[in-house]
Amino acid sequence: MDSPYFPSFLRVLLFGFWVLALFPEFVVSITRHYTFNVEYLNVTRLCHTRNILSVNGKFPGPRLVAREGDRVVVKVVNHVSNNVTIHWHGIRQLTSGWADGPAYVTQCPIQTNQSYTYNFTIVGQRGTLLWHAHISWLRATIYGPIIILPKHNESYPFQKPYKEIPILFGEWFNVDPEAVISQALQTGGGPNVSDAYTINGLPGPLYNCSSKDTYTLKVKPGKTYLLRLINAALNEELFFSIANHTLIVVEADAKYTKPFETDTLLIAPGQTTNVLLKTKPYFPNASYQMAARPYFTGRGTFDNSTTAGILIYNQPLHQSSLKNLTLLKPTLPPINATNFVANFTGKFRSLANAKFPVNVPQKVDRKFFFTVGLGTNPCPKNTTCQGPSNSTKFAASVNNISFVLPSSVSIMQAYYSGQTNGVFKTDFPATPLNPFNYTGTPPNNTMVTNDTKLVVLKFNTSVEVVLQDTNILGAESHPLHLHGYDFFIVGQGFGNYDPNNDPAKFNLVDPVERNTAGVPAGGWIAIRFKADNPGVWFMHCHLDLHTSWGLRMAWLVLDGAGPNQKLQPPPSDLPKC
């Protein structure tokens, strides 16, 4: 019988605390609830004030913090006139594809004054990812960091940092980016470029009317900082460097890597890189510029400018004022430094140890060869266009198919309900229908086919995809992002992929595992993954201009036999088109 002074529930509670104190590994994962209000926010940059779209009145948006194993529930409420969705970029979304977020692929967008709750569990991932809008170009201002901490009582496989700092690169437009892409799609020409790049929303002192909007990172001497670098820019891969400081890469796309040192990084839109910054052991009589500027190899126009922040050592009170410090500047590679890029990306290797093994598919069930690049569409009758010629519009494609999104239903809803007629086809070609010398002289006919075709994969299929850049309208680097998966980059090279000789050079021991990888300008990469996540998964270039032009496709992975191998039913609040 309970003592009135010590009821049984208190005894159970105390026993629970005692168990947790003695066996901390029993700490279970928790559910973390967030509310994201998509709302207008007045922001002034470069002497231009714009009414931008934001989340919770913050630009960049709020941090989403969780631990590996946690369930995350985010209620997104739309208070603006635009339709909106949010994508949790890099989250595996095992069987929870309804929470992935790409508009018209896994859901219809959230309409004005409507809401949708994204519900997912973080499995086997720790590090840095990002969330962003996934409709049209809204991610220009709707983005923020996802910080996944290791499970309780698990440590980093590198030195514990003194402090962790997210650094988000973005792109600022003085005008509404929606007007920019709308005009470009109408005229068929290249879009007006952005007016600045930003570090944590601030362009920095190298732009007119911007010196007050400079990101400052204050550090202490003799400490190790973890910088969580995120490229949330719309259309540009970026070089990044901090003057007179070496960075140690330890993680990419929420997967640990073998550490390596570098003075300069390349980071593509959608990619994340965690680096250790070891500060100098003394107070230097200098401040240090950190700078980012684009890597660009294409033919079109681009924003050829540099965003800069300042790294400052906290000076003791008796030291001279900051104004007397020398400002040291980093040296960034040339704009088109493709050899540097190939050398840098080649340094990434998975940690591949007993605790963090790599499960690279050694045998492959299905092989695909996809060309990625630009092309053209005909200009509508009796109009003049601003594409490569006045009778054509710019387009982009995978295996010469420029992917058309449906507008009245999402692809996954159509698949799940069995009503796929007129929504999508399942005959996406495994290889180009009209082969040519991909990195040589381009063919005369550059017209693309506009269609909605998917590749269907049986559950647990081992897949290899070779992604080949083409020279049509200029060789260009394409950062390809695959939703719902991390993939292993087993090979890369310049020129045309050679199926007879290149596979012998594949790394099947410790290849890097990513969700976004650059197809080299005038070259190829080979990736492998196991199709163990049922649902419809978008794959697209993460340069939003190319996505808008049609450089996108989707995989349909069928259910497996087991109970945890099936796409969950759609949530009751899934938005309607």
UniProtKB/TrEMBL annotation:
Major enzyme class: oxidoreductase
- GO cellular component annotations, sorted alphabetically? apoplast
UniProt subcellular location: Secreted, Extracellular space, Apoplast
List, separated by semicolons, the cofactors it needs: Cu cation
Q: A Gene Ontology MF term for this entry?
A: hydroquinone:oxygen oxidoreductase activity
Q: Where is the Plastocyanin-like domain?
A: 38-151, 164-315, 431-559
Query: So what EC number does this one have?
Result: 1.10.3.2
Reactions mediated catalytically? 4 hydroquinone + O2 = 4 benzosemiquinone + 2 H2O
UniProt KW keywords: Apoplast, Copper, Glycoprotein, Lignin degradation, Metal-binding, Oxidoreductase, Repeat, Secreted
Query: Which GO BP terms sit in this record?
Result: lignin catabolic process
**Which InterPro entries does the protein's record reference?**
Cu-oxidase-like_N, Cu-oxidase_2nd, Cu-oxidase_C, Cu-oxidase_fam, Cu_oxidase_CS, Cu_oxidase_Cu_BS, Cupredoxin, CuRO_1_LCC
> What's noted on cofactor binding?
Binds 4 Cu cations per monomer.
Judging by the UniProt lineage, the source's domain of life is Eukaryota
The protein's matches in SUPFAM superfamilies, at most eight in alphabetical order, are given as: Cupredoxins
Q: What does this protein do?
A: Lignin degradation and detoxification of lignin-derived products.
Q: Which family does it belong to?
A: Belongs to the multicopper oxidase family.
Q: What is this protein called?
A: Laccase
Lineage, highest ranks first: Eukaryota, Viridiplantae, Streptophyta, Embryophyta, Tracheophyta
